[in-house]
Specification:
This protein is mainly α and 398 residues long. The protein contains 14 helices and 3 strands. Strand 2 and strand 3 form a beta hairpin.
């Protein structure tokens, strides 16, 4: 009798087809945000595209092209899995550093800085590739260390290689402080997750916040006309945007006008006035202000809720991952999306000094969107491996 039951269980287990599944909620949210981003790019860029190129859909078409390429990259990484990061993670990181290092020679200058490399009519921002490299390299390092950085030497080595070095490279070689900060924060967040001594990080965060607050107080008491560095002027303009009506102060004020004029439910999709040349970079860094104008505070809250749920789903995939490599890959993507969303909204609402940070999947930017989609391919691959492992375990039990 026992032998028959064992044979029956074995036959039933052989019939089980392990599902190549993943987090469908995460995929749905991703598709919805990307689709919403395309709609908003079409709305915010139509006027400037018509004036500059004679085609109202010029920027929309380019973003759609990169979205298609990003979809291909996402599917490729989903089907190939994520274990290749164990072999190629350091290589991707090195390629990112090399591309950033080539900017002074190969980069094309725009807005006083060389941040893009043009291949024909296609522009690539090496900082975006380096963000992907920092996530892969950081996950590789921590997984090789057994999932935890033990001791001061390991922590300092990780911070030097995966946070300070790439962040400093981006800032010094491309004069891109915002991307340098994002790269640094991605590496720092991954190091924080892998460090058991939480108290050290709390003390460090308090010190950094205290020094920053003291610096802001000192700068606020300086004369608004004081001569200083570009970064100092940015902070003064943040505190007193009316003092610079020909630069970032004008952009900030116009963005706040857009937010205020939208009310709670907005003027309606496509009916923004501030996008008609009043808000500089309305399709890029300042697109959130146009969302507030056209869809109101209600639309802005919906966007924030969407990103919050998206981040929760990434975290859920990470906590269920079956190995450290998958966990830290997911949390690296989590860090990048969270940091960019927080910084972008903070800049638009003038909570922090103005610096160029795109809103993931919604701001115009082809290489950024495509590489982010590739990163989500890794997250979905981790989710699929989790489902497969659960199916195998269920098959063994039955």
């Amino acid at each position: 009798m026992a032998e028959r039951q064992t044979a029956r269980r074995r036959r039933r287990a052989q019939k089980i087809k392990y599902p190549k599944s993943f987090d469908y909620t995460l995929l749905f949210l991703l598709v919805f945000i990307i689709g919403f981003g395309l709609v908003m790019i079409c709305s915010t860029s139509s006027y400037s595209a018509m004036i500059r190129y004679g085609d109202a859909l010029y920027y929309f078409k380019r973003q759609l092209l990169f979205t298609v390429l990003g979809t291909g990259a996402m599917l490729l990484l989903y089907y190939t899995g994520y274990y290749w990061v164990r072999r190629l993670g350091p290589l991707i990181f090195f390629i990112g550093l090399l591309m950033v290092a080539s900017l002074p020679v190969l980069g094309t200058e725009s807005h006083g800085a060389k941040r893009w490399i043009y291949i024909g009519s296609v522009s690539i921002q090496p900082a975006e590739i380096l963000k992907f490299g920092v996530i892969c390299f950081g996950a590789w390092m921590i997984a090789n260390a057994g999932g935890e950085l033990k001791g001061r030497k390991q922590i300092l080595t990780f911070m030097a290689l995966d946070a300070v070095l790439p962040g400093g490279f981006v800032y010094l070689l491309s004069k891109n402080l915002s991307s340098g900060i994002i790269v640094f924060l991605i590496g720092t967040f991954m190091c924080f997750l892998a460090t058991p001594q939480v108290r050290v990080w709390i003390v460090g965060a308090v010190l950094v916040i205290g020094v920053a607050a003291l610096a802001v107080i000192i700068i606020d008491h300086l004369p608004q006309s004081v001569d200083g560095s570009f970064r100092l002027q940015r902070v003064i303009t943040w505190l007193h945007p009316e003092s610079d009506l020909t630069g970032t102060g004008y952009q900030t004020i116009q963005a706040l006008y857009a937010i205020g004029s939208g009310g709670f439910f907005g003027k309606g999709l496509g009916k923004s006035l501030q996008k008609l040349g009043y808000v500089p970079e309305s399709k890029n860094d300042m697109i959130f202000s146009i969302i507030c104008e056209e869809l109101g505070i209600f639309g802005a809250i919906c966007v924030i809720v969407l990103f919050t749920v998206l981040l929760y789903r990434i975290w859920d995939v990470a906590r269920n991952a079956k190995d450290y490599l998958g966990f830290y890959l997911c949390m690296g993507v989590f860090a990048q999306v969270a940091v960019q969303v927080i910084l972008n909204i903070a800049v638009v609402t003038n909570l922090i000094p103005n610096t160029g940070v795109s809103l993931p999947f919604i701001s115009y930017g082809g290489s950024s969107a495509a590489l982010l989609m590739a990163e989500f391919g890794l997250v979905l691959a981790v989710s699929r491996k989790t489902y497969e492992a659960a199916a195998k375990e269920e098959g063994r039990r039955s």
